Structure formats: structure tokens, C-alpha cells
Amino acid sequence: MKQPKIPVFFYGSYINFDVLKEVDIIPERYQVAKLYGYDLSIQPLGNIFQAEEKCVYGIVVEATHPELNRLYTEHAEKKLGGIYLPEAVLVQTNGGDWMPAMTYISHDMAKMQADNAYVERIAKPAREFGFPKWYIEKIEQHKSR
Prior knowledge:
By secondary structure, the protein is of the alpha+beta class. Helices cover 29% and strands 37% of the residues. The chain contains four helices and five strands, in the order E-H-E-E-H-E-E-H-H.
């Protein structure tokens, strides 16, 4: 049986297609989008939290439930040490359209300094996708000096 695909909003290292390839996820297409009412944190992994006057940039891709399970169980939890849970959100694409999507949030991540190489795995595709300069600078502020 062919698995249905659902739209998923990625905002951290999963906007990096090289990282997705590590678990055999190769998006057929993507859309740059933003999620209002949230802010980004990278301490030590990418995560978002509710913040009324902020927004988070990312991409929307389609993935199957088995792919997402593999990504968030085998990769995020077992390899990176982060437990992320699914939540439904409403994002706005760069074209101005609104669309429902699933995203994943960690609610119990211990705050620690992010590794500079990890931060760059987010900053590099953010530059390639054309995220605003101020947002890229926000990502890079998580690097240690």
C-alpha cells in the first residue's frame, strides 16, 4: 500500500537536505514558509517555542508517517538525543498562501550551547533558501565565539 504524504514544516537542521538524506528522505519539492507566533532556539538542537510577536522561517515538504517516525525516532531521538512531538500548525508560504502542516517540537530539551557545526547546518540552507538576512543573523547568533 502506498503511504500518504502529509505537509511538514521543518525549521532546524531538517531544512538541510543533506541531513534528511541521512535517513533516506529526499523531498520531491519544498516551499519556503514562515510560522507566526513562534520563535527559534538552538540550545543545543533546533527547537521552537510560542512567542506571540515572533516568526520562524522554514520549509514545507511532504513526507510519509513512516519517514517522519524514522526521522524523529531514529535520528532526532537516538542519534541527536532530542525528543520531538508532532503538533499541527498553520504556515504562510512565500507566495502568501496559508496551509496547515505538521511540525515537531521538543518540550523538555535541556538548554546547552549549540555546536558551531550544527548551527551552520541550519544557517547554510537558510541562506540558500533566501531567508531574510536578519533571520540568518539570528541563527548564527547561536554559535559560540
